[in-house]
Design a protein that fits this description.
Blueprint (H helix, E strand, L loop, with lengths): L2 E7 L13 E3 L5 E7 L5 E7 L2 E8 L2 E3 L8 E16 L7 E15 L4 E9 L2 E9 L13 E7 L2 E4 L4 E4 L12 E4 L5 E2 L3 E5 L2 E8 L7 E5 L4 E6 L8 E4 L1 E3 L2 E7 L2 H5 L3 H4 L15 E6 L1 H5 L14 H13 L4 E4 L26 H11 L2 E7 L4 H17 L4 E5 L13 H16 L3 E4 L15 E4 L7 H4 L5 H6 L4 H4 L14 H4 L20 H10 L4 E3 L14 H5 L6 E8 L3 E8 L2 E8 L4 E6 L9 E8 L5 E3 L5 E3 L4 E8 L4 E6 L4 E8 L2
Parallel strand pairs: 23-24, 23-29, 24-25, 25-26, 26-27, 27-28
Antiparallel strand pairs: 1-7, 2-3, 3-4, 4-5, 5-12, 6-11, 7-8, 8-9, 9-10, 10-21, 10-22, 11-20, 12-19, 13-14, 13-16, 15-18, 16-17, 17-22, 18-19, 30-31, 31-32, 32-39, 33-38, 34-37, 34-39, 35-36
Helix pairs in contact: 4-5, 6-7
């Protein structure tokens, strides 16, 4: 990657371990980290921001079976540095990034001969710290030098300075598809990260960055406001097996004075290493459609038969639709043999298509039409089998000109391995790195959470990792509040393949399918809980460089509101969250080339929000095409028997605007608004 240095100053200061000197401020001076070591040699830290305590004194350290990693430390040296540089990425919410931070590295040793460097970085949007251990010279009982360690405990604490409100999902080491909870910090027993909270006038979010070869971190409450890191365990109960010299992921705390400041933070990416791929020209954001939603509705299936979705005929139809509608890719789930084993052996063939899916013909036809063909590899959690077979599969895909792959892990991993354990993390990374060798970009479902590795491995383009669209097909579904929480929680970690964009709100097409009139059984809660305008806005609000229009394509054909997706560009250059409150509403603007796109969404309350259009280019007139809720929609009976305005009603308005104008966004309950801004020639 090309790195342009605006200002890079390394100032090294060596000093004795005086606790009074171990304080680090962010470049603006608004955020401070204080480090100390207590009488037992246990490291501690605390964080304040804008004159307010955020993290009170909290202990640090890991535990290992072979030697002492947690206490007995004395400070030997403190090294400081400053960095201010710009860097670019091939895709992302913002392609031009700025890394501006101050760093403090505290080198310590204990009486067992273990050295530990606690490395802190303070940014204007938060802090990060990590452990850098060297136990190779540790004094052990048998006198032999250590070459590896068994990590048995993580004593990283986050003692929040005061109670407040938090938004999180519960701790579960094999999945993230849980409903978000809004509750008091002091009422939270455990949580996965990002763990987002508000205390008085400050917002914060605890997460991690650069997760490699280590289990993921969750947090468990020990006392009222005292949270301790818990790592996803190995089958034997230990946490990780590492070398005698090892570095952990960064533990991160994003801090902002308003809710949207968390969204606009670049801290997670800045704590990751630069891109390691020499050629990234094949990694391109795109829009896509595919056979997927029908499987969840029950109108199509993954296996061969009368309702098989991935057939040659259906593939040609989808490729033609994509080519005619400025859509770059088409995904086919259920194309390969093995789905008949679902729920049993979980054995899939990643090279051999079903007899009614002519892979070579379809690949050639897609190439002729200028459309990217996506493959899908469901593993059912069988990671060892997939690791044996994936290079053969990737080579085949590369030979067919295929660059995009959706992976899935909907099932338990073998030998009691948890998805988010060290072995799980190693597997997910092995897939990313192997795929890069064959010029294949990954969209991972049932993934390990995003921690910013997309900077280093930009072929890791998007992933699921939360309750997505499919939950609307066979459960009570996702509320508009859920969609107003995601940008401030899950999406702080990185892109999400939510698969947005259902236009058939009440599933009339699905219910009209012969033999499927009662497809959703007695579950009258199963329907989309938002308006069409909000479904359109989600293409902007839920960031993914690979963005799907997930509905059955017959529901888009001839639909005036689908013009937004035709105009939309997933390859954005700049993004900014303009306004919002967690769980209530959100407004985000993005630029792709000369076009701008705005998305807004509200919860179950109607809402009007006025935003300045000063993000537009000065001196340019734009045609703003507004896709909005129809505030005069007639009241109809919902599938659950309640009365509410018809969610399928919308209006399209075109106006001319410039950067000096303001826009008042009026949204119905559970509604939203999407706007495309296209320069007037």
């Amino acid at each position: 990657m090309k790195i342009k240095h605006l200002f890079l100053l390394w100032a090294l200061f060596l000093m004795s371990g005086c606790a009074d000197d171990m304080s680090l401020k962010s470049p603006s001076g608004d955020i401070t980290v204080d480090f100390s070591v207590d009488m037992d040699g246990i490291p501690h830290y605390q964080v304040s921001a804008y004159g307010q305590d955020v993290i009170e004194e909290s202990s640090l350290g890991l535990e290992a079976a072979e030697t002492e990693l947690a206490y007995g430390f004395n400070v030997k040296k403190v090294t400081r540095s400053k960095v201010d540089q710009e860097w670019t990425q091939p895709w992302g919410e913002n392609k031009l990034m700025r890394d501006r931070h101050n760093e403090m590295a505290v080198l310590m040793e204990n009486d067992r001969g273990v050295s530990l460097t606690m490395r802190f970085r303070a940014f204007d949007d938060g802090i990060g710290y990590r452990y850098e251990y060297d136990a190779s010279a540790a004094d052990v009982q048998d006198g032999e030098a250590l070459d590896s360690l068994t990590i048995t405990g993580d004593n990283t604490y986050f003692t929040l300075a005061q109670d407040g409100t938090c938004w999180s999902i519960g701790s579960y080491f094999s999945g993230y598809e849980l409903p978000y909870r809004e509750q008091a910090i002091s009422a939270t027993e455990n949580a996965n990260t990002p763990f987002t909270f508000r205390m008085e006038d400050l917002y914060g979010s605890i997460h991690e960055a650069a997760l490699y070869d280590f289990p993921e971190m969750n947090i468990y409450r020990q006392d009222s406001l005292d949270f301790k890191s818990e790592l996803a365990p190995r089958p034997d109960g230990s946490l990780a097996r590492v070398g005698a010299r090892f570095t952990t992921p960064w533990r991160t705390l994003q801090i902002a004075k308003d809710a949207v400041g968390l969204i606009n933070s670049s801290l997670i990416l800045n704590l990751n290493e630069p891109c390691v791929l020499e050629d990234v020209s094949w990694i391109k954001p795109q829009k896509y459609v595919g056979v997927w939603w029908g499987m969840h509705l029950g109108t199509q299936v993954w296996t061969m038969g009368p309702r098989h979705g991935a057939t040659t005929e259906n593939a040609i139809r989808h490729i033609d639709f994509a080519a005619a509608n400025n859509i770059q890719g088409v995904l086919f789930e259920g194309w390969n043999k093995g789905w008949e084993n679902w729920g049993g052996s979980q054995h899939f063939d990643y090279c051999e298509p079903y007899e009614d899916f002519d892979l070579e013909r379809i690949a050639a036809y897609a190439a002729e039409k200028g459309v990217s063909l996506w493959m899908h590899n469901e593993t059912g959690g069988s990671i060892f089998e997939y690791e044996r077979e994936m290079e053969k599969a990737f080579a085949k895909y590369q030979s067919l000109g295929i660059h995009y792959l959706k992976t899935g892990y909907a099932g338990g991993m073998p030998n009691y391995i948890r998805h988010h354990s060290q072995r799980g993390v190693q597997h997910y990374q092995k897939v990313v790195e192997t795929a890069a060798e064959y010029e294949i970009a990954i969209d991972a479902h049932e993934p390990i959470k995003e921690t910013g590795i997309r900077r280093t491995w930009p072929n890791m383009m998007t992933r699921e990792g939360a309750r997505g669209m499919e939950w609307n097909a066979w459960s009570e579904g996702n509320s508009s509040e859920h969609l107003c929480v995601l940008p401030y929680t899950r999406l702080l970690s990185g892109p999400m393949d939510y698969t947005p964009g259902v236009f058939d709100i009440y599933y009339k097409t699905a219910c009209a399918t012969p033999g499927r009139e009662e497809w959703n059984g007695d579950n009258s809660q199963t329907y989309i809980k938002t308006t069409i305008a909000r479904q359109i806005a989600n293409w902007v609000l839920i960031y993914s460089p690979l963005q799907m229009a997930c509905d059955l394509i017959e529901n888009y054909e001839g639909h005036p509101a689908f013009q937004f997706f035709r105009d939309f560009d997933a390859d954005c250059d700049w993004s900014e969250a303009l306004a919002g409150e967690i769980g209530d509403y959100i407004v985000i603007a993005r630029r792709a080339g000369e076009k701008f796109f705005l998305g807004a969404g509200t919860d179950s309350e109607p809402r009007a929000v006025t935003v300045p259009l000063d993000f537009l280019e000065p001196g340019v007139t734009y045609e703003a095409v507004i896709y909005a809720d129809d505030l005069d929609a007639p009241v109809v009976t919902q599938p659950d028997g309640t009365k509410a305005p018809d969610k399928t009603c919308y209006r399209i308005e075109k106006i001319k605007v410039t950067s000096s104008d303001t826009l008042t966004i009026e949204m119905a309950a559970d509604g939203g608004q999407a706007v495309s801004f296209i320069p007037v020639e």
